[in-house]
Amino acid sequence: MKMISVYDSVGSILSHDVTQIIPGEFKGRLFKKGHIIKEEDIEKLLSIGKEHIYVWEPEEGQLHENDAAIRLANLVLGEGVAKSEEIKEGKVDFFADRDGVLKIDKEELLKLNTLGEIIVSTLHNNTPIRKGEKIGATRVIPLIIEEEKIIKAEELIKNKIIYVEEIKPKKCLLITTGNEVYSGRIKDAFLPVIKSKLAYYGSEVIRQVILPDSKERIIEEIQKGFAENVDMIICTGGMSVDPDDVTPTAIKECGGELVTYGSPILPGAMFLLAYYNDIPILGVPSCAMYSKRTVLDLVLPRVLADERLSLNDIAAYGHGGLCLDCKVCTFPHCSFGK
């Protein structure tokens, strides 16, 4: 790459994007890499402080920022992710190519970003994502980078760092318990909440059954769900530690594997998760009826993406598991669950 005076640049080809910044009004590309300088461009370049431009003359062992960014994108991107067709100012943007849950290998990402002169930036791991949403980007810091640095990155990173787990529609059995609901003294408020949250991800409640606080009846209905081959069972009501709240005990005794009863998430401390073979059973506490965001919003998309959650997965939510109940909710693009 060589530097020439703007006044001598007519007919030359830019080797990099030229950015214009007008404070408070505009920041973007004034000229694109490959642009052929014309006489009328000289004044524009001078107005942004460019008295010289650079013409890159390739040398062996060096990469232009655009070429390096493409190699980095190809290195880190896995299934369910697309990259921008246009490279702007040496940066490649990443977008979700399907609805799902964004997965980031944070350890591998840290390795890559500690190499120096290379950056990859993403949204948080486990963020629910819609197709087309921007989820990350990559670029190199210098305009020209030693190819050896990119080769080192390619040798270091063995697995894809960024991918989107696809959410699969599921049919759910909803079991609502509580003597007060069963007797008709109060109206069930869980069904519209659960239906709405499932529908957002293309899933549905195929059947709801309302039961008294009877351990035997709850076990019976859960086992009926197994026989019906439902994809998921959600139990609501009776999730606290009161003596007559028997739903957790019923779930534990239905023949499945208990993952956890309790979570470090607020709202949602009394959450329960179990599995019967591949069928997840969620015990959802009453906070889901009145709180805008709860443990259910964090766990549900991962369950719908067929991720088998462990106790460690739930315990990890202690860091970031406090919902601030903001007046204007921006979930999932907030600190909750991150």
TrEMBL record:
It is an enzyme of class 2 (transferase). It catalyses: adenylyl-molybdopterin + molybdate = Mo-molybdopterin + AMP + H(+). It comes from the Bacteria. Pfam families: MoCF_biosynth. InterPro entries: MoaB/Mog-like_dom_sf, MoaB/Mog_dom, MoeA-like. Its cofactor is Mg(2+). Catalyzes the insertion of molybdate into adenylated molybdopterin with the concomitant release of AMP. Belongs to the MoeA family. This is Molybdopterin molybdenumtransferase. It comes from Clostridium gallinarum.
